[in-house]
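We close this part of the discussion by returning to an individual protein. In the encoding step, the backbone of a single protein was reduced to a row of integers, each denoting a local shape. The sequence in question and its structure tokens are set out directly beneath this paragraph.
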Amino acid sequence: MGISRSSRHKRAHTGAQRAHYRKKRKFELGRQPANTRLGPKRIHTVRTRGGNVKYRALRLESGNFAWASEQVTKKTRIIAVVYNASNNELVRTNTLVKSAIIQIDAHPFRQWYEAHYAQPITKKGAKAAAAAATESTEETKPLSANAQKRLDERKKFLSEKVEDRQAEALIFSVSKCIMPTYTSFFLN
């Protein structure tokens, strides 16, 4: 028959069945879901009403992710779909849909964090001590008073949770897209 977005088949708010008075119309059509999977980027174009074009992402391997609390956005690699509240099958097949919890590569955010706050993110324990020792031996370029003041202001709000999470080089993100495209994901 074809997918239709018509609501003529629905019952009225009183519970009455609506009468069928016409066939399906072209402007009521619906299309197959994209079911975007992880893999090398594959995007198809779909001609729509008025000769306009939609871009249907069939496979994606990266996306733009926003770190809302830090107001920073970076393009990074998607590693896996970890959880989906609606269907476990979507987790098994690595299907990207809205509200899916996905695992992304943290390196772009780690690089920004280290540049922005002028301190490295390291794992706790011996590696942290070793990193601190190597940092103290390196010659650092002296900062101006204004730049040092800015860094001190930024460091007031550092979170220990961020350092623990970023040290693992993996971050979990919630997909906020309705249809996966290039700029459709946001980091918690």
